[in-house]
């Protein structure tokens, strides 16, 4: 059974569905790490639109609140991990860090351009991750 | 100290050097294009970029941030250059640096927090719009081939990175399209048509201007604007790099570093500059975390110019114009449309006013100042909202004050009082109020004097500590009334 699950989450409906899927195979003692990748170009938008440095983290937490609230209601233990970087490489890097048993992600994220490119993050992660990958449709 | 130096220079040198080289390649077209915007030879922007990058890598507060000649400063100096020439620009750059250095020593970084979000959004959007507008003359109404080159440049910039990221797409556009142009020829203007490239290192010069009050009168307004705009963009960029690298940096050291770097640039024939958001993101995205990356960017830039100077003059202008369109698109904050709809009306208005003032005056500094003043006024209006609730039971009257009592709110407060009461026991309840200044104290004094004149008994209730202190210092109210409340 999976003790440590990595969930790649951007707050989209797809990642929410991926989170719901986890409830089907998590056990007591399983910890889900909710990974939110902040692209470098997002730093500009977030700093410009954030009221101040301290509120930045709160605003970022709010973005994935649909998932954290779901885990709370289901009593699933979770922690949140923010990483700066390009989404594809960063999810692969964290998945291969050795700390996780499985990586779960949705087929495609928020980025509308990437939607045209047919879920390039899930494609790359499936190809490069050294742990089992669950892609939720 | 040594530890910090080592960490800030020598962590992962390979990645940082590679990132620096990448940034140098991306800087060349921008430095040339910004020079052309300012109306000076490309060398003025290239020298500036080399000097500022190298100098800020040592003196700046934010490792891995890239500073060089920028559009924000270039756009400011257009009238100065066209009316008085490049020597005045160099003198203005010296003064700009001196102003920034003084502001840095006075620890002005802290003042950045007084620039509201709405003004910062207006600033970047106005900058983007101005960069785009500056390219119109290089794109429209020249020739069919100009349109074709601009179009293909944009195509390369936006499509190639999806498949190939090792070389910056703007550079690919320059190399491929300049080669095409050299082979096939076309009815285009080139960089060489707009200025000369010298294949030499910059040398020390003292700007050739008369050192008189008249000169100071000419350059001072420009220098002030350049200093403000340079610091606003630099400190904003520093915050962005702080966030992207999960670290903190000294904003005051950055301000001082920007000042010294601009002074050096001015003495070596370079125009003023500041930090660049786009280039810094390219650097960090490539894995840069240290000062070495910024240093490398500057050194590689000047090396490339000395080696490739002859080729640079052959670059067709429409390619640079296409790259500048990309810079404008990247600078614009596209979330602002949503912001205008969703933000409080006054904030949205401040952002729009900031943009409009910049476009109207062609001066980013004016926009920032107008935006800050306007939002301060809105803030004062909002905070000067005060309500007074009156309740009466038999002979007892109670006034409850809600809000901030200061010069802007005392009129509103006094108008809500009924000073016709007489022979009553009146309680003034300050539980939800705060007295800030002598106007506030005066108002309270006046109120009490008038009430007492009509034979009322006045009692003050729940004055907070600060308000009590200022009343004690400034008021004529006697201790008796103060103490009765408690």
From TrEMBL, chain A:
<dbReference type="Pfam" id="PF00582">
    <property type="entry name" value="Usp"/>
</dbReference>
<dbReference type="InterPro" id="IPR006016">
    <property type="entry name" value="UspA"/>
</dbReference>
<feature type="domain" description="UspA">
    <location>
        <begin position="1"/>
        <end position="137"/>
    </location>
</feature>
<comment type="similarity">
    <text>Belongs to the universal stress protein A family.</text>
</comment>
<dbReference type="InterPro" id="IPR014729">
    <property type="entry name" value="Rossmann-like_a/b/a_fold"/>
</dbReference>
<protein>
    <submittedName>
        <fullName>Universal stress protein</fullName>
    </submittedName>
</protein>
<dbReference type="InterPro" id="IPR006015">
    <property type="entry name" value="Universal_stress_UspA"/>
</dbReference>
């Amino acid at each position: 059974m999976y003790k440590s699950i990595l969930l790649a989450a951007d707050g989209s409906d797809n990642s929410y569905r991926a989170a719901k899927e986890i409830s089907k195979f998590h056990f007591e003692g399983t910890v889900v790490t909710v990974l939110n990748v902040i692209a470098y170009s997002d730093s500009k938008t977030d700093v410009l639109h954030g009221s101040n440095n301290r509120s930045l983290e709160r605003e970022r937490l709010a973005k994935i609140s649909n998932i954290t609230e779901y885990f709370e209601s289901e009593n699933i233990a979770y922690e949140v991990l923010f990483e700066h970087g390009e989404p594809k490489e960063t999810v692969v890097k964290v998945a291969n860090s050795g700390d996780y048993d499985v990586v779960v992600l949705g087929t495609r994220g928020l980025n509308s351009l990437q939607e045209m490119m047919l879920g390039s993050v899930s494609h790359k992660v499936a190809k490069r991750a050294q742990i089992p990958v669950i892609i939720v449709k | 100290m040594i530890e910090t130096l080592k960490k800030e220079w020598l962590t992962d040198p390979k990645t940082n050097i590679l990132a620096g080289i990448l940034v140098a390649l991306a800087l060349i077209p921008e430095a040339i294009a910004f020079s052309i915007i300012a109306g000076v030879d490309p060398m003025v922007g290239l020298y500036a970029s080399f000097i500022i990058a190298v100098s800020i890598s040592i003196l700046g507060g934010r490792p891995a941030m890239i500073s060089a000649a920028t559009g924000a400063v270039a756009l400011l100096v257009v009238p100065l250059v066209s009316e008085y020439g490049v020597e005045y620009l160099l003198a203005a750059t010296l003064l700009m640096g001196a102003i920034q250095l003084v502001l840095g020593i006075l620890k002005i970084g802290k003042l950045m927090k007084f620039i509201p979000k709405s003004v910062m959004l207006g600033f970047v959007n106005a900058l983007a719009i101005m960069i785009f507008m500056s390219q119109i003359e290089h794109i429209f109404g020249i020739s069919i081939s100009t349109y074709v080159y601009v179009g293909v440049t944009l195509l390369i910039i936006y499509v190639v990175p999806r498949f190939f990221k090792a070389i910056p797409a703007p550079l690919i556009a320059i190399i491929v399209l300049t080669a095409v142009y050299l082979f096939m020829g076309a009815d285009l203007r080139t960089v060489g048509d707009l200025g000369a490239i010298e294949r030499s290192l910059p040398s020390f010069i003292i700007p050739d201007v008369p050192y008189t009050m008249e000169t100071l009168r000419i350059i001072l307004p420009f220098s002030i604007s350049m200093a403000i705009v340079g610091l606003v963009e630099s400190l904003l960029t520093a915050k962005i790099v702080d966030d992207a690298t999960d670290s903190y940096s000294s904003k005051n050291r950055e301000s001082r570093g920007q000042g010294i770097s601009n002074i050096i640039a001015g003495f070596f024939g370079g125009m003023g500059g500041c930090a660049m958001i786009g280039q810094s993101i390219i650097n960090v995205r490539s894995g840069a975390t240290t000062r070495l990356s910024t240093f490398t960017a500057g050194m590689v830039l000047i090396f490339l110019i000395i080696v490739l100077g002859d080729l640079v003059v052959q670059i067709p202008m429409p390619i640079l114009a296409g790259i500048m369109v990309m810079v404008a698109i990247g600078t614009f904050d596209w979330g602002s449309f949503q912001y205008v709809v969703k933000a409080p009306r006054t904030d949205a208005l401040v952002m729009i006013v900031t943009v409009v003032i910049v476009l109207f005056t062609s001066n980013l500094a004016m926009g920032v100042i107008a935006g800050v003043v306007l939002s301060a006024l809105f803030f004062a209006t909002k905070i000067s909202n005060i309500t007074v609730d009156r309740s009466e039971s038999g002979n007892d009257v109670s006034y409850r004050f809600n809000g901030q009592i200061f010069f802007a709110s005392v009129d509103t407060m006094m108008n809500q009082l009924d000073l016709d009461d007489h022979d009553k026991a009146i309680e003034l309840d300050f539980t939800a109020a705060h007295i800030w200044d002598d106007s506030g104290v005066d108002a309270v004094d006046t109120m009490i004097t008038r009430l007492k004149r009509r034979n009322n008994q006045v009692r003050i209730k729940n004055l907070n500590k600060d308000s009590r202190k200022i009343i004690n210092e400034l008021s004529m109210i006697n201790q008796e009334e103060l103490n009765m409340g408690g």
